[in-house]
Write a structure and sequence with these properties.
Layout (H helix, E strand, L loop, with lengths): L2 E2 L37 E4 L2 E3 L5 E3 L4 H4 L13 E7 L2 E9 L4 E13 L18 E9 L5 E6 L6 E5 L5 E5 L4 E6 L14 E5 L8 E2 L4 E2 L11 H4 L1 H9 L5 E2 L4 E10 L1 H7 L4 H15 L8 E11 L2 H7 L5 H15 L12 E6 L10 E4 L10 E5 L5 H12 L24 E2 L10 H10 L8 E2 L18 H9 L4 E2 L13 E4 L2 E7 L9 E3 L2 E4 L2 E4 L27 E6 L19 E6 L11 H7 L6 E2 L2 E2 L2 E3 L10 E6 L5 E7 L5 E3 L2 E7 L2 E3 L26 E10 L7 E6 L4 E7 L6 E6 L5 E3 L9 E5 L2 E8 L2 E6 L7 E6 L7 E10 L11 E3 L5 E8 L9 E11 L4 E3 L14 E4 L8 E4 L14 E3 L2 E6 L5 E3 L13 E3 L9 E3 L11 E5 L2 E3 L13 E5 L28 H6 L1 H6 L49 E4 L9 E4 L7 H13 L22 H13 ...
Parallel strand pairs: 7-18, 15-20, 17-18, 17-19, 19-21
Antiparallel strand pairs: 1-2, 2-13, 3-4, 3-5, 5-6, 6-9, 7-8, 9-10, 10-11, 11-12, 12-13, 14-22, 16-23, 20-21, 24-25, 25-26, 27-28, 28-29, 30-31, 32-33, 34-35, 35-36, 37-38, 38-39, 40-49, 40-50, 41-48, 42-47, 42-49, 43-44, 43-48, 45-46, 46-47, 51-52, 52-53, 52-54, 55-57, 56-59, 57-58, 60-62, ...
Helix pairs in contact: 5-8
C-alpha cells in the first residue's frame, strides 16, 4: 500500500476525433485517467470480491463481467461483498441492489443540435425558425443493474453508495470519515481477473477552494419573472391537475419519491466521455439518494431517476450565460419545463429537474443555484449545479434541499452551530469535516413543507401485490380450511349433515371419518357452501353480484374493566365493536382502534416491594421446562427495546435466557432503567414520573419528579476491615432510596464481595454456594452490574434501592485487609447519620457563571450590537439553574459584538386590504385599512419602522363607502295585549311610513287575531250568597273567583266596574305589600279563589291615590305615569283577571296596626261572608307562603313603600 503525495500526477491521455462542424462525432474515442493531482491524500488499492465472512472469491468487480466469473458464487445473489484496505483500515462492504434509484421505463436521451452561425449563443431565440434546433439522436433504456447501497460489516452507523458498472465507484461513509473510490482507469472490465487498481481518497482531501453557498438560491417567485410567458404553455397542465387526480400508485406513509429529470450539458459529457458518463451519473445520483436516506433528516425521501438527457454543444452553451447565474437558472428551468411530459401518468413525468454543467455560470466558488420551496411547481422545481466529481453529490443535495424548503443553517434559523460539524445546508462548504449530516433546522423546515408537495406521493415502482378478494373465503374451500386448522389430510366432516354448514366448520381425517372435530368457529365468509351459495356471517346465502357495500361504524364504548394490578400502576381497558352497522359486502372496516386504556391504582404498594416481572418468571418455576429440565427463573430485560414487553427469563442455574412465548402482563415496567413507562398489550407506553401517559417529566438524580437536583446529596466513604475468621463479615449498610450506587475495592484482595437484603435476608450477590463471576443481573427490582477485573471487584446500580442492603465480604484469607469505597446519591431527607466509620457527606454542588446566549441584535440591518447573556450552571452536570445559586459579584461583564452588518433597504408604504364598509346605505358609511411603513430585510421578512422613514405620501387609511340613499321602510310598533281575557280577541300595533306614502312593499298588518284559553263554560247554578246582589260588590265580577261565586248576579249586569283595589304580582313574594290582619275583612279575597303562579314574572307597580268608586280609603296599584281614569281601570282589571301571575290584595292608607272599616252595615255583613268563605285559612292572622323554599310570616311588618293619600 503506497501513500502518494500531493505532487504525484497521473498521466492523462486524451484522444478526440472531431467532426467537421466542431462536434464530437460517432467515432469519438476518449480515455481519461483520473486527475488525482486534485487530491491531497489518497491511496491506490485493489478491491476483491468476498463472501459474507470476508473470504476471497475473486478480483471480478464489475456487474457486466461478474456473470462470466465461475468463482463468484454467493449463497445470496441479492448481496455483494467487497474488501478494501485503505488508510490502515479494512472495509468489508456489504451491498444490496438499489432498486429504488431508477424508475421502470426510465430512459437516456442523446440530443443533437443543428446550428445556424451567429445565433448559437442566443439563449432566448434558439428555437426561432432559421436559428438553432435540436432533435433526439437516440434513446436507450437507463441501466439499473449496477447501483448498490449498504454498509460496512460490524461497524454501526455506516453507509455505502457504490456502483459496479465499471469497477467500483462511489462513496463510503465510515464511523468518522467519508471516502470516495473509483477505478484509476476506465473501460478495463475484461482485465479485472488479475486485479484492478482503484483510487480511494478522503472527501476532506479534495483540493478546492471553500465553496460559498450563501447566495445560491432565489427567495421569491418573481426572481424567475422571465418565465412568465410559460403561463399559457402550462395553463392546461394546471387545469388538469385541478380537475383530475393523479392515478399513479400512491407511496407509503412518510415515504416520498422525487422523480428526477437529470439534464447534462455537453461539457460534462466531454469531460467523462460518452462511454462512461452514464455510469458516472448513475453513481453520482446513487450518492445523492444515500445522502437523503441519512437518518438525521427525519423523513424518508427517495431520489428516483425517470429520465436522463444528454445535450449537444450548441444547446449547452445557449442555456448557460457565463457570470449570470440568475439568467442561467431561468434558461435551465425553462428548458426543463419544456421537456415535461403532459401526461401526468407517463413514466417519464418528472417532479424535479437537476441540471449538471462544468461551465462557469457564476462568480468563483459558486457551485449551485436554486429557488426556495419550488418543489412540484411546473417551472420553479429545478436546480443548476456545477459538476466537479463525486463531491458534487453534496452540491446537488444542498440545492435540492433549497427547492424542498430548507434554508442555510445559521441564516434565518438557529443552527449556525452545526455548520462546523458538516451540515449539508451549511452556507460555506469547506469539505474539511468528517461526516455529513442534516441539521435539526433542515429537518424542521422540511417537515414544514413536505406535506404540501403532493407530487412526491407518487410511487413510480411496480409492486406485484395480489389483489385480495372482498370476502376471504372465496379462494379457500372448506376442505382447505380444515387442513389449515388441523393439519394435512383433514377435510370437511361428512359423517353427519348439519342444518347449515356455515354455522360451524366440522372436520375429520379419512383414517377415522366418524371422529369429527371443530374449533367452534364458522367457515370464512365467501366459502362455497352449496351451488350458487356461499357462507356469510354464519349463514349459507345465495350469491348476489349486486350486493351493496356497507361501511362499518363503531358501537358504543363498554365500561372500563378491572385494573391489571392492585397497586404499583396497572392498566384497565374498555372496548367497542364495529357493529353499528357491521361492514358487509366488502365495506370499509371501522377506522381507529377498538380499545382504550387508562392507568389505574398508581399508588405505590404498601407491603414489601415485589418485582412484577420477577413474579411472572417465578410462576414458571414449577411447570416450564427448558431443555427437559426445570429451572429457577429470574427476570431478564431483552437488549432489543422492541422485545422488552415479551416475557424473557434467565435460568439461575445455567444463565440461559428463554422466551416464555407470551407477553408480559399489562402494567409491567418496560425497562429497569425507566421506573415509569409500562407495557400495554405488548407495546411500551411512555409514562412520565407524574404518572401521565405521554408525559416527558423525569426524576432528578435523587428521585424528585421534575426536580433540579437541588435536594440531592452525595454520600461517600471508605470502610476498611481485616477479617480474623472465615464467614461473612459485615462492612456497612446502604439505606433505602439510594441511587447511583457504586461499591468497589480500593486494591486487589482475595476476599469476595457480597450483598444481602436486610429486610428479607436474601442474598443479592454471591450467596452461599454461588460462583463469583462478572455478570449483569436483576434483583430487588433494579439492574446490577458486577465486575471483576485484575482481582478488583466493583458493583454498580442506578437504583433506587427499595430495601436497605448490607455490604459484606467473604474472607478467603485471615489477616488480609479489605478496603471498600462506596458512593451513592440520596434525597436530603434520607441522608444517614454521619458516624466515625469515615463516612462523610460530600459538599454541596458548586456553581459557576456560563455563557447562555447572545441577546437579540439591536438593529435588523445596518450594523447593530448584541451582548452576551450569562446564566448560572451547576458544575456537576453542566445544567443551567436559577441565577440565585451563583454569586452576583462574580458575574462576568457582558461582551459586545457587531451583528446584522448588511446594508438596510429603503422602507416602503404597505397598505393592507380594505375592511368591509360600516354601512350598506346612507350618508355615514366608511371603511378602514391598515397602512404601515415596512422595511424589507434580507431574510425575506419585514419590520415595521416609524412613518418618517417612508418616502412619498402616506396612502389613505379611511375612505367613504356606500353613500347612497337608503330605501324607505315601514316601521312597526309592538303588539298590544289581547283584547279579551279568554277566547278569541284581537291585537293591534302602530304602523308608520317615515317617507309619507313612498315606503317599499305592502303595508304590514296593524290588526291580528289572538287566541287565549277558552272561557269557562261551566253552567251557572246560581249565586252562592245573598250578598252577591249588593251593588257595592258588583265591581268584583271581573275577578274569576268572585264571578264563579256570584255567576247569576254578574251575568245580569251588562258591564262591571273595575275593582277598587288592584296590585300586580311582584317579582318576589316580598314585593307584594300585604297583611291580611290589617285589612278590612270584607275586602280580603280568599286565596283559593285567586290562583297564584310563578311562571311569568310580572312588572312592578307603584302606588298612588285615586278618587273613584270605593271610597276615600281605597288605593290602586298602577304602572308609573299611567292615568287613573275609569277606562284604564277597566282595562287593567280585565288584564289582571286574565293574568296567571296576578294576586289581588288590598293596601290601607292607615298604619299597619289600624283596620279600615266600610261605612255601611251591609259591607260589614259581606266581610263576615268572605271570612267564612276562606276555606284555606285566609282569615287567619298568621299565614305562611312558600316560594323559592322561603317561609314568610305575614304577621311581621311589611317592606316599606311610599303611599300617597
Amino acid at each position: 500500500m503506497v501513500l502518494l503525495s500531493l505532487w504525484l500526477i497521473a498521466a492523462a491521455l486524451v484522444e478526440v476525433r472531431t467532426s467537421a462542424d466542431g462536434q464530437a462525432g460517432n467515432e469519438e474515442m476518449v480515455q481519461i485517467d483520473l486527475p488525482i493531482k486534485r487530491y491531497r491524500e489518497y491511496e491506490l488499492v485493489t478491491p476483491v470480491s468476498t463472501n459474507l465472512e470476508g473470504r476471497y472469491l475473486s478480483h471480478t468487480l464489475s456487474a457486466s463481467h461478474k456473470k462470466r466469473s465461475a468463482r463468484d458464487v454467493s449463497s445470496n445473489p441479492e448481496q455483494l461483498f467487497f474488501n478494501i484496505t485503505a488508510f490502515g483500515k479494512d472495509f468489508h462492504l456489504r451491498l444490496k441492489p438499489n432498486t429504488q434509484l431508477v424508475a421502470p421505463g426510465a430512459v437516456v436521451e442523446w440530443h443533437e443540435t443543428s446550428l445556424v452561425p451567429g445565433n448559437i449563443t442566443d439563449p432566448i431565440n434558439n428555437h426561432q425558425p432559421g436559428s438553432a434546433t435540436y432533435r433526439i439522436r437516440r434513446t436507450e433504456p437507463l441501466q439499473t443493474n449496477c447501483a448498490y447501497v449498504g454498509d460496512i460489516v460490524d461497524i454501526p452507523g455506516t453507509s455505502v453508495a457504490i456502483s459496479n458498472c465499471d469497477g467500483l465507484a462511489g462513496m463510503i461513509k465510515s464511523d468518522n470519515e467519508e471516502y470516495f473510490i473509483e477505478p484509476l482507469e476506465r473501460g478495463k472490465q475484461m482485465e479485472e481477473e488479475k486485479g484492478r487498481i482503484h483510487v480511494v481518497y478522503k472527501r476532506s482531501a479534495v483540493e478546492q477552494a471553500p465553496i460559498d453557498m450563501s447566495k445560491d438560491f432565489h427567495y421569491r417567485e418573481s426572481d424567475l419573472e422571465g418565465l412568465d410567458d410559460l403561463g399559457t404553455v402550462y395553463g392546461n397542465i394546471h387545469q388538469q391537475l385541478n380537475e383530475t387526480m393523479r392515478r399513479r400508485r400512491h407511496a407509503g406513509e412518510n415515504d416520498y419519491n422525487i422523480e428526477v429529470l437529470l439534464g447534462v450539458d455537453d461539457s460534462v459529457v466531454r469531460f467523462h466521455g460518452k462511454e462512461h458518463v452514464q455510469n458516472y451519473l448513475l453513481t453520482l445520483m446513487n450518492i445523492v439518494n444515500e445522502i437523503y436516506h441519512d437518518e438525521s433528516l427525519g423523513v424518508h425521501i427517495n431520489v428516483v431517476l425517470v429520465r436522463m438527457i444528454m445535450l449537444g454543444y450548441a444547446k449547452s452553451i445557449s442555456l448557460i450565460e457565463r457570470g449570470n447565474p440568475s439568467r442561467s437558472l431561468e434558461n435551465v428551468c425553462r428548458w426543463a419545463s419544456q421537456q415535461q411530459r403532459s401526461d401526468l401518468n407517463h413514466s417519464e413525468h418528472h417532479d424535479h429537474a437537476i441540471f449538471l454543467t462544468r461551465q462557469d455560470f457564476g462568480p468563483a466558488g459558486m457551485q449551485g443555484y436554486a429557488p426556495v420551496t419550488g418543489m412540484c411547481h411546473p417551472v420553479r422545481s429545478c436546480t443548476l449545479n456545477h459538476e466537479d466529481g463525486f463531491s458534487s453529490a453534496f452540491v446537488v443535495a444542498h440545492e435540492t434541499g433549497h427547492v424542498l424548503g430548507m434554508e442555510h443553517d445559521g441564516q434565518g434559523n438557529r443552527c449556525g452551530d452545526e455548520t462546523a460539524m458538516g451540515s449539508v445546508m451549511a452556507p460555506l462548504v469547506q469539505a474539511a469535516f468528517h461526516r455529513y449530516h442534516w441539521s435539526r433546522c433542515s429537518g424542521q423546515e422540511l417537515k414544514r413543507y413536505i406535506h404540501s408537495y403532493d407530487c412526491l406521493l407518487d410511487d413510480p415502482f411496480d409492486h406485484d401485490w395480489p389483489k385480495l378478494p372482498e370476502l376471504p373465503g372465496i379462494n379457500y374451500s372448506m376442505d382447505e380450511q380444515c387442513r389449515f386448522d388441523f393439519g394435512v389430510g383433514y377435510k370437511m366432516c361428512t359423517a353427519f349433515r348439519t342444518f347449515d354448514p356455515c354455522k360451524q366448520l366440522w372436520c375429520s381425517h379419512p383414517d377415522n371419518p366418524y371422529f369429527c372435530k371443530t374449533k367452534k368457529g364458522p367457515p370464512l365468509d365467501g366459502t362455497e357452501c352449496a351451488a350458487g351459495k356461499w357462507c356469510y356471517k354464519g349463514h349459507c346465502m345465495w350469491k348476489n353480484a349486486n350486493q351493496q357495500k356497507q361501511d362499518g361504524n363503531w358501537g358504543s364504548w363498554t365500561k372500563f374493566g378491572s385494573c391489571s394490578r392492585t397497586c404499583g400502576t396497572g392498566v384497565r381497558f374498555r372496548t367497542r365493536q364495529c357493529n353499528n352497522p357491521m361492514p358487509i359486502n366488502g365495506g370499509q372496516d371501522c377506522p381507529g382502534v377498538n380499545f382504550e386504556y387508562q392507568l389505574c391504582n398508581t399508588e405505590e404498594c404498601q407491603k414489601h416491594f415485589e418485582d412484577f416481572r420477577a413474579q411472572q418468571c417465578q410462576q414458571r418455576n414449577s411447570h416450564f421446562e427448558y431443555q427437559n429440565t426445570k429451572h429457577h427463573w429470574l427476570p431478564y430485560e431483552h437488549p432489543d427495546p422492541k422485545k422488552r414487553c415479551h416475557l424473557y427469563c434467565q435460568s439461575k442455574e445455567t444463565g440461559d435466557v428463554a422466551y416464555m412465548k407470551q407477553l408480559v402482563h399489562d402494567g409491567t415496567h418496560c425497562s429497569y432503567k425507566d421506573p415509569y413507562s409500562i407495557c400495554v398489550r405488548g407495546e411500551c407506553v411512555k409514562v412520565g414520573c407524574d404518572k401521565e401517559i405521554g408525559s416527558n417529566k423525569v426524576e432528578d438524580k435523587c428521585g424528585v419528579c421534575g426536580g433540579d437536583n437541588s435536594h440531592c446529596r452525595t454520600v461517600k466513604g471508605t470502610f476498611t476491615r481485616t477479617p480474623r475468621k472465615l464467614g461473612y463479615l459485615k462492612m456497612f449498610d446502604i439505606p433505602p432510596g439510594a441511587r447511583h450506587v457504586l461499591i468497589q475495592e480500593d486494591e486487589a484482595s482475595p476476599h469476595i464481595l457480597a450483598i444481602k437484603n436486610q429486610a428479607t435476608g436474601h442474598y443479592i450477590l454471591n450467596g452461599k454456594g454461588e460462583e463469583a463471576k462478572s455478570r449483569t443481573f436483576i434483583d430487588l427490582g433494579v439492574e446490577w452490574d458486577y465486575n471483576i477485573e485484575d482481582d478488583i471487584e466493583s458493583l454498580h446500580t442506578d437504583g433506587p434501592l427499595h430495601d436497605p442492603v448490607i455490604v459484606l465480604i467473604i474472607p478467603q484469607e485471615n489477616d488480609t485487609r479489605s478496603s471498600l469505597t462506596y458512593k451513592y446519591i440520596i434525597h436530603e431527607d434520607s441522608v444517614p447519620t454521619i458516624n466515625s466509620n469515615n463516612v462523610i457527606q460530600e459538599e454541596l454542588d458548586t456553581f459557576e457563571w456560563a455563557l447562555k446566549s447572545w441577546s437579540q441584535c439591536s438593529k435588523p440591518c445596518g450594523g447593530g450590537f448584541q451582548y452576551t447573556k450569562y446564566g448560572c450552571r451547576r458544575k456537576s452536570d453542566n445544567k443551567m439553574v436559577h441565577r440565585s445559586f451563583c454569586e452576583a459579584n462574580k458575574k462576568p461583564k457582558p461582551i459586545r459584538r457587531m451583528c446584522n452588518i448588511q446594508e438596510c433597504t429603503h422602507p416602503l408604504w404597505v397598505a393592507e386590504e380594505w375592511e368591509h364598509c360600516t354601512k350598506t346605505c346612507g350618508s355615514s358609511g366608511y371603511q378602514l385599512r391598515t397602512v404601515r411603513c415596512l422595511q424589507p430585510l434580507l431574510d425575506g421578512t419585514n419590520r415595521s419602522v416609524h412613518s418618517k422613514y417612508c418616502m412619498g405620501d402616506r396612502p389613505e387609511s379611511r375612505r367613504p363607502c356606500n353613500r347612497v340613499p337608503c330605501p324607505a321602510q315601514w316601521k312597526t310598533g309592538p303588539w298590544s295585549e289581547c283584547s279579551v281575557t279568554c277566547g278569541e280577541g284581537t291585537e293591534v300595533r302602530q304602523v308608520l311610513c317615515r317617507a309619507g306614502d313612498h315606503c317599499d312593499g305592502e303595508k304590514p298588518e296593524s290588526v291580528r287575531a289572538c287566541q287565549l284559553p277558552p272561557c269557562n263554560d261551566e253552567p251557572c247554578l246560581g249565586d252562592k250568597s245573598i250578598f252577591c246582589q249588593m251593588e257595592v260588590l258588583a265591581r268584583y265580577c271581573s275577578i274569576p273567583g268572585y264571578n264563579k261565586l256570584c255567576c247569576e248576579s254578574c251575568s245580569k249586569r251588562s258591564s262591571t266596574l273595575p275593582p277598587p283595589y288592584l296590585l300586580e304580582a311582584a317579582e318576589t313574594h316580598d314585593d307584594v305589600i300585604s297583611n291580611p290582619s290589617d285589612l278590612p275583612r270584607s275586602l280580603v279575597m280568599p286565596t283559593s279563589l285567586v290562583p297564584y303562579h310563578s311562571e311569568t314574572p310580572a312588572k312592578k307597580m307603584s302606588l298612588s291615590s285615586i278618587s273613584s268608586v270605593g271610597g276615600p280609603n281605597a288605593y290602586a296599584a298602577f304602572r308609573p305615569n299611567s292615568k287613573p281614569d275609569g277606562a284604564n281601570l277597566r282595562q287593567r282589571s280585565a288584564q289582571q283577571a286574565g293574568s296567571k301571575t296576578v294576586r289581588l290584595v288590598t293596601v290601607p292608607s292607615s298604619p299597619p296596626t289600624k283596620r279600615v272599616h266600610l261605612s255601611s252595615a251591609s259591607q260589614m255583613a259581606a266581610a263576615s261572608f268572605f271570612a267564612a268563605s276562606d276555606s284555606i285559612g285566609a282569615s287567619s292572622q298568621a299565614r305562611t307562603s312558600k316560594k323559592d323554599g322561603k317561609i314568610i310570616d305575614n304577621r311581621r311588618p311589611t317592606r316599606s313603600s311610599t303611599l300617597e293619600r
